[in-house]
Here is the input.
Amino acid sequence: MDYVIIGNGAAAVGCVEGIRALDQTGSITVVSAEPYPVYGRPLISYLLEGKTTEEKMLRYRPENWYKKNGVALLSGRTAVSVDSAAHQVTLDNGAVLPYHKLCFATGSRPFVPPMEGLETVEHQTSFMTLDDARRLSRILGDQKDKRVLIIGAGLIGLKCAEGILDRCASLTVVDMAERILPNVMLPHPAALIQKRMEDRGVAFLLGDSIARFEGNHAVLKSGKAVDFDVLVVAVGVRPNTELAAQAGCAVDRGIFIDDHCAAGPDLWAAGDCTRSHDISNGSDRILAILPNAYLQGETAGLNMAGGSRAFTKAVPMNASGFFGLHVVSAGSYDGQRYLEEDPETGSYKLLVTRDDRLVGFILLGDVERAGIYTSLIREQTPLSSIDFDLIREKPQLMAFSRSERAKKLGGVQR
Here is the structure.
């Protein structure tokens, strides 16, 4: 059996490990556009901040992981076409890879909206990859004299701001939304995070957008202007679906997959390039988060190798931090809300329930037991079956029955 995986991120890792759980002898080829082994992309802001190193980033899996799993890694190569009828992948160097089973783990790419005069900006970059981080580090240099403008107040833009703030003279974030983190955060906790960042020196221009660039001079639609030396475009991402569409898969922004991560005959897909079913609100949408990517990849790999595994527990989830303020959020915010807030410590806890289920939460500050809340959402645990009053006040395993505690601790129910 010849397996081909296009992509080399968390979804690809899950796919390899899923395949090898059932098939130890089939050939696996991973096509990677980047010239590196798999690495932790969320760490690139910490790399610029000096909190990690490239060596540590490249240890998402051990150095011998590819060899140990019998994987042929084609790094620095790009798949340019997939012929699903002939079961062949053509690479940018003309090489043709035959396959029996193929997984699209193609991820996403930065979205750069049309902005007048963008081509006149000399020093500009996106912020998604190790190469982006390297480029930004070179541009900033060591003098801390650069004025930085970031377009986008989502997770990517804000983590970039945190990573480089101490390496620049000033930093301004512009977003057309009225608040930061508009896709993952409610207004009040977003305002708390924004204040934390403003207290550290980050300036925000929200509810505004770029009208045009004149070199290092940005004119906003409100009439305001920002002078800068370095531009980071972090507006958002777009799934890489072109190869899947060419292969005959159904695509609408993301690749359509079933519960087994199948996208077509002998074709599977996983990760940021797919549409997932969000069990917290019943919608089908892009869920570009690392845990989801790995679990989908593992599911695809197991099924490619002849198994039968369904992945039906996808939820939006983000765990991050901004200048020492830990933040974890998950699920949907549509339902009955329970709120605790302590302005003195800066802690904030919002739990959202609906139909005897926990469907979402936001934690700022104390996030130590966030995994219990996430588990309740993923498992769709009836709240009437547990001591939810106890979990609501202080999440702990004692709120579960003995058998449920054993499952969560990896024990055996007798």
